[in-house]
Amino acid sequence: MKCAARHSKKPLPSAKQWRFSTSATVFRNQPGPLLSGEDQLPAGIQLLFLIKVFYCRWIKFEEKVEDGGERWSKPHVTTLPLHSLFELRTCIRKGAVLLNLEAHNFKQIVEKVIEIQIEKQAFKPELLKKLTYVLLLKPYHHATKSQLKLLFEMGVSPCLKNRFKKKIPAGTEVANILVGEVSFLEKPFIAFVRLQNSVLLGNLTEVAFPSRFLFILLGPRARLKAYHEIGRAMATLLTDELFQRIVWKAKDTEDLVAGIDEFLDELTVLPPGKWDPTTRICPPKSLPSPQKRYLTEKRCRWRQIPHANGNKSAVDDRQAHGHQFISEELEKTGRLFGGLLKDIQRKAPWYASDFSDGLSLQCLSAILYIYLATVTNAITFGGMLGDATDNMQGVLESFLGTAFAGAFFCLFAGQPLTILSSTGPVLVFERLLFSFSKDHSLDYLEFRLWIGLWVAFFGLILVATEASYLVQYFTRFTEEGFCALISFIFIYDAVKKMLSLVEHYPVNWEYKISDITLYSCTCNLTETGNSSVLNQTLFPNLSSFEQQSDVEWSNWSLLTKDQCMQLGGHLVGNSCNYVPDITFMSFILFLGTLFCAMALKTFKSSRYFPTGVRKLVGDFSIILAILIFCGIDAALGLETPKLLVPNTFQPTNPKRDWLVFPFGANPWWIYLVSSVPAILVIILIFMDQQITAVILNRKEYKLQKGAGFHLDFLCVSLLMIVTSFMGLPWYVSATVISLAHMDSLKKESTTNAPGEQPKFLGIREQRVTGLMVFILTGLSVFLAPVLKFIPMPVLYGIFFYMGISALSSIQFMERLQLLLMPAKHQPDFIYLRHVPLCQVHLYTFIQIFCLAVLWLIKSTAAAIIFPLMVRQGMSESAQDLFLCIEKLLLSIAFYLYLYNP
Q: Where does the secretion signal sit in this chain (predicted)?
């Protein structure tokens, strides 16, 4: 009879997600004195001192007790002699198999197992006491703590002493493997037990988890090594996910044997002369899922279907490699505001948890990190808006708009992890609109107000007609192109601003040490009255004659730069404008912050310090990097450029008010003509917002609370009304800062088996971090005395880091690196298994070409059409509108491969 799991077409459902902590116990016979005290040895073994020692343990990978018995080995992949698996198969067939045994403690289990063996006449009745005594010996667990810590823990409960329990996930059950040799047996004593209900077995287990399975193997002497390998084979099987399913559903011995055969079918054998068996194989970073291993028939169909083109259902994991499936958020209802109502119904049950889930220390780190990025971004765009609009919109308007728009969006949007910001295309439009208004004698703010009202009106129409469902046609090509360009812009701007420091703080490249006598800087006081004031200030105790005689030398030798400026003088000399070390120090701060942030972020996966410390440092990596280099800057005392925040609450341009009146300044026909540029703006806003929303709601982020494309766009449309009336900048989702926000909120498993890589669990979805970021942004005017100590090069380094982090999340960078790698050194990416390398390179070159075109467009006044260039085509249907160019590019890349397999 074969196991049902072997032939079923469906994967075996497991009642629970079971994980096994398996430990192997070895009985060692050592010559020694008789046991003293009340313990009495059964007859026949009085010359042996039996020690029940735990030798190995498995959570997911094997750990052995090192020589000396004071520490466990590094977790490693189990390597078994092939013969041990065949011997284990024989043991299962010949031994006692007790399935669904009812027992409440280890003593009852041992008694029932021995009784059944004796009833089958496998052993003589007189061995009952000896077997019972041996199996019930108190186990010896290896101590892995210092003597001082053990001294402090004297008298503490064994369960409290065991810190190892924290590494094991809740719900874990233990499988105990007891193997050894004794002198009174002539043939092996073998038993496999599955309990009806898991029970705590006291000191038998190293951790206080209930046990479900036991495997006992006691045999004659001289074969301890063989017994040990059989025990390791059983432990390896019990930690295999597929065998766990089989052993849970097994009804008899044949089912267990079939499970071992299933394991042997997948076994890989290494030749003994090609590797060192003593080498411990490190655990891999990722493992195939049990579902992929089990579905053998589907794997065969995958091999039969060339490249799985044309049929989306042919490959289960195609969606995981960039294909955007149609989720419920993008289903069209056919009713006015139907999608919006579904978004509200979907997000409303989560609203309370959006605030309770933000009560985490990780959220504090995210708040500080994104706040500094948002403040710097607001200052940058505010300054550029001020230059483009004659300060009709400046830094203070940027701060106020960012705070209000961001807080409103985080409170009511469908995806509160999104960070709003001004964008490059919007800045270009503002510059063009201001120039047009100035050339035609129009009031810029009123003209802009009506454009904003039309944009909001068109936005409401798009929300009502569920236009957001079109984002389902955005694929990897579009997402990567958009994300890569924005990331490169962040990197480029950070470097550009650092290079601009050379103009403000010049470096004396032609300095020669021999010309030091030629450099001078003196204070020139053109008015004689200043000399008198100077002498009275510096030498009040001297007589008038002495002050007059000293005036010549005191003017030049004793005045500092500040005193010279205060007394109305000016500096004269070829070294007066030289500022030592500012530029080089700024680059040290810039690069130091960048590399420090990267190093601290990866510190979480290092080997140093306990897991809790590494996690804390990783979560606060950006803040720590900023604080470290702010401290270095303060300690050195150089006048590096600092973060300057407005400290007064008034419009940047005194000619304007906080509210824009919609009538009177422009002709009446402007109110209607404004709809024409509003069409261009609404397309820009729609594409910019929705492409970012698609990137943030990718399946690989494992978001649990769903998206809200229609609700998000409604919030953006309503904000257009408010910001237009107040003369504040227009806001849309910022791709790079939003990705940085999500990256700072990643959740990883905390209970990982030794050797197991932390698993990505998803994003901490909540509204607290975004809300607090924008509240702090609004309060930045009052925090100016503190923020002025932050050097701008430090913040530029964070901008550079954000660009690199966003690039690392897209597959385009992986394929870009493949261009520089020989084929034999390339990583084992899934797409390289099914697509020829030349076609992969061709696809990458097409993306590079498109990015180059977009970059050229961005550098000109045509940057306003950037989102349109990402997605543009001409066709009759809406789907063809979004797919035309992409399908053309993909057909060029894969034509030969698809039609000539």
A: none
